[in-house]
Amino acid sequence: MSTARTALFAIVLGALPALAQDWSHWQWTDWPQWLGPHRNGISPETGLFGKVPSFRESWRVHAGQGSSGLSVVGDRLYTMYIHSGEEYAVCLDARNGEVIWRTRTTGNDPSEPRGGRSPRATPTVDGKMVYVLSTRGRLLALDSQFGTQRWSRNIVRDFDSVRPNRIFAASPLVNRNLVLIEAGGKSGHSLMAFDKISGETAWTTGSDERGHSSPIIATIGQTRQAVFFTGFGLIAVAPQKGRVLWQYPYITSQSTNVVTPVFIPPNRFFISSSSDMGGSLVEVTATDKGYEVAEVWRNKNMRNHAATSIYYQGHLYGFDGSTLKCLDAETGEEKWKAQGKGTLIVADGHLVILDERCNLSIVEATPAGFVEKANIPVFRRSRCGTVPSLADGGIYLRDNEEIVRINIMGATQ
Q1: Rounded distance, CA 393 to CA 8, Å?
Q2: Residue 18: what pLDDT?
């Protein structure tokens, strides 16, 4: 690391007040998958930010092209990137950034296209296994310690999931003994589940176009549901059997619905698109005959392109094009806006934002107004599009060339 860059992150913004905090209630957790422990973009860690947050760079390492997220479990970090022209799943030591293993995610089938395309799906860590979905549609189960392949399935070849110029970008979802993915295959192969130990097909359903959104688990009443945002709209299935529970059409231009559906307990979902459809809040109600789905509101106040909005304490925070906004989740009314474009999560009552110019900022998560408490440059040579991860008191970030851990001062020394 250069002397100048070291100095940059050694700057302590109000260090004495920050370090004077009581850190005894700090709660450290893992970030094992896309959008964190509960796939809602919210870190459960507390006591992170003082009145004036301060940071220190812990390590910085070279990485390859890709916007795959960073999953952190214990002292290991998992992601995907291009290395020597091929796509790889990669495990790093979360303490120093050293590569522990790299496993190529392209197969040996000569008919499979060669050459790496920028991976976007985030690895899902489940105990001793990590599940990854390549850009070409190969689902792999890898040993989390050594990167050894336990099984793989070729979604394109085996299940007729072909769409020209469309890569796979949705992150696998583990539910109990199954791995669920949006496959986008025809003839009942749109949504799929595989046994997480053997890789055997557990169920398939639907014929929707692939939308690139990662699925979530939500419980409505007493019913656990896997909710997908396909190219045709929202669809919920029983995660163990694949039975369709309810659907809500939401067809956009080119059938591309990228962002993850946002669950708003007890029974609502926010979805959004950068198209003229805008954002919509829907309510799902259980009846004697199944489920009824009703639109609560729809407007163009929050048109997410690729960055999923976060629901926090009655409000939605996200990017409407090149504008950061806060909306009242009940009404869709805009509470405030600020110029900027990027990705974000919520931690300790704050928005943790990596903007497209690769600056890290900390903003209060409040509908009262835009209050930025810190803003520091992280990467200098490219644009950023990967959502931050937060684990063990550290923020993990990446661009197309580097991965970095930034310590929140007072969490780790």
Answers
A1: 19
A2: 34
Residues 6+ apart with CB under 8 A from 305: 258, 259, 274, 319, 321
Identify whether the C-beta of residue 171 lies closer than 8 Å to the C-beta of residue 214.
yes
- How many Cβ atoms are within 10 Å of 373's Cβ, its own excluded? 17
Total Cβ atoms within 10 A of residue 184: 30
Find the mean pLDDT for residues 225-239. Answer: 96
Cα first-last separation, the chain: 19
Peptide bond into 164 cis (omega under 30): no
Could you count the other beta carbons within 10 Å of the beta carbon of residue 154?
A: 17
Percent of the chain with pLDDT over 90: 77
Q: What is the 3-state secondary structure (H, E, C) of 265-277?
A: CCCEEEEECCCCC
DSSP H or E segment with residue 363: strand 359-364
User: 185-196 burial, b for 16+ CB within 10 Å, e for fewer?
Assistant: bbeebbbbbbeb
| 8 A C-beta contact, residue 396 and residue 408 | no
